[in-house]
């Protein structure tokens, strides 16, 4: 009897969270289809390079890279508008200027089209609600609502589960689990500002460094 393969479409930014999510899905027996977005973010070239390197490490051959240049036209985020400075003064309360309007909603909508085409039963996204920078599109309730909408808007026989295995983890727990799975953390990138050496002072770098410190581990990437 031929066993039908399980396919998971993994949204992979090249960062630590989405990389761990992909490793977790592979461990659960899924064949990985990888999806990456170029959305005119400051570190677009570096993130794409990391995405391909991580896919090589995971031996993922089926990869999609989608270009979304309209995010730059929309602006309103320090990640896509160079006229807005990336904050470096420390983690702040509320929604930061690095929030890209409805980014994960758009990503998941496009991922749904690919997942349906590929016959995937799961979409994996590395959102983190409890220890993130306060992005509204990283909330579990939002992702659950997107799952419902995707299944309402696709074929009757399509039944997609959106997996968010990290949503309730702290960054230190993410680091520990990544080390346990021997995830290629040295190939990941989190910095919002730089593409050569991580700045170490943007929100994303601070969260990452704090996670490694609390996990009692050393971050393998270079910092300024």
UniProtKB/TrEMBL annotation:
Q: Enumerate the UniProt keywords alphabetically.
A: ATP-binding, Ligase, Metal-binding, Nucleotide-binding, Queuosine biosynthesis, Zinc
Q: What's one Pfam family the UniProt record gives for this protein?
A: QueC
Q: Report whether Nucleotide-binding shows up as a keyword of the record.
A: yes
Q: What SUPFAM superfamilies is this protein classified in? A: Adenine nucleotide alpha hydrolases-like
Question: Is ATP-binding found in the keyword set?
Answer: yes
Q: Which family does it belong to?
A: Belongs to the QueC family.
A GO term, aspect molecular function: ATP binding
Give the pathway annotation: Purine metabolism; 7-cyano-7-deazaguanine biosynthesis
Q: What class of enzyme is it?
A: ligase
Q: Any idea of its EC number?
A: 6.3.4.20
List the lineage, top down: Bacteria, Pseudomonadati, Campylobacterota, Epsilonproteobacteria, Campylobacterales
Q: What is this protein called?
A: 7-cyano-7-deazaguanine synthase
Which Gene3D superfamilies has this protein been placed in? HUPs (3.40.50.620)
| Encoding gene per record | queC
Catalytic function, reaction form: 7-carboxy-7-carbaguanine + NH4(+) + 2 ATP = 7-cyano-7-carbaguanine + 2 AMP + 2 diphosphate + 2 H(+)
Binding locations of ATP? 12-22
Q: Which organism is it from?
A: Sulfurimonas crateris
Q: Which domain of life is it from?
A: Bacteria
Question: What is the cofactor note?
Answer: Binds 1 zinc ion per subunit.
Annotated residues for binding of Zn(2+): 191, 199, 202, 205
> Per its Swiss-Prot or TrEMBL entry, what cofactor is needed?
Zn(2+)
**Function text:** Catalyzes the ATP-dependent conversion of 7-carboxy-7-deazaguanine (CDG) to 7-cyano-7-deazaguanine (preQ(0)).
Listed under GO biological process in this entry are: tRNA queuosine(34) biosynthetic process
């Amino acid at each position: 009897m031929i066993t039908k393969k399980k396919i998971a479409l993994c949204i992979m930014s090249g960062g630590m969270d989405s990389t761990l999510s992909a490793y977790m899905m592979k461990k659960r027996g899924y064949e990985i289809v990888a999806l990456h977005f170029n959305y005119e973010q400051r570190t677009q070239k570096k993130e794409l390079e990391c995405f391909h390197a991580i896919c090589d490490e995971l031996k993922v051959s089926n990869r999609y890279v989608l270009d979304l240049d309209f995010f730059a036209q929309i602006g309103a985020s320090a990640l896509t508008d160079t006229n807005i400075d990336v904050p470096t003064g420390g983690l702040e309360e509320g929604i930061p200027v690095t929030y890209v309007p409805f980014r994960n909603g758009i990503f998941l909508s496009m991922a749904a089209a690919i997942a349906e085409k590929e016959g995937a039963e799961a979409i994996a996204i590395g959102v983190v609600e409890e220890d993130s920078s306060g992005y509204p599109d990283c909330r579990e309730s939002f992702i659950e609502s997107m799952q419902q909408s995707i299944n309402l808007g696709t074929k009757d026989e399509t039944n997609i589960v959106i997996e968010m295995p990290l949503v309730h983890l702290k960054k230190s727990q993410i680091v520990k689990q990544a080390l346990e799975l021997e995830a290629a953390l040295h190939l990941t990138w989190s910095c919002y500002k730089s593409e050569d050496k991580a700045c170490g002072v943007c929100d994303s770098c601070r969260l990452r460094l704090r996670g490694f410190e609390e996990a009692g581990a050393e971050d393998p990437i270079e910092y300024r």
